[in-house]
Amino acid sequence: MKKTFIIILSILTIGFVSCKKSTPTVSAAQQAIIDDGLIKAYISSHNIDSVKKDSSSGIYYKIIAAGTGAYPTAKSSVNVNYQGTLLNGTVFAPEGNIASPLADLITGWQIGVPFINTGGTIMLLLPSRYGYGDNSPSPTIPNNSVLIFTIQLVSFSN
Q1: Given 21, 30, 59, 136, which is the most exposed site by the fewest CB atoms within 10 A?
Q2: CA dist., res. 124 & res. 57, Å (int)
Q3: pLDDT for 24
Q4: 3-49: pLDDT as tens digits
Q5: Domain ranges (residues) in the chain
Q6: Distance CA 52, CA 105 (A)
């Protein structure tokens, strides 16, 4: 009986393992190169001017309106209006508002939101590693997607 159970369990295990779909893996460095090319192509094809690239992170951004006053920091709590889209124009985050510690938000926001002051608006073009990487929270956002956010900083507190 015990031997039969082990054999059946082994067969089921082999069956499940063989059914698992293999997904091609890309190294982080390769994905960064892919993302950078996609972002540059998007900027060019949409004739977006005045886009800057943060040299330390590699995120691209366009300050639409700078705002006034002090800048938030990584330790700030922010209140923002935002919208998120994919490069193909799919809206995955319709216009919304969030109030949260900046440290609790995706890394791309932590890097990009401090570029604007209260009342400012920024467009962030985030390489996948600064969004959700290969661990998407939603079926509407494919793994390793470059994300575009338009964010207005309503207010912040330290």
Answers
A1: 21
A2: 12
A3: 58
A4: 433 333 333 333 333 344 445 588 999 999 999 999 999 999 999 99
A5: 26-157
A6: 22
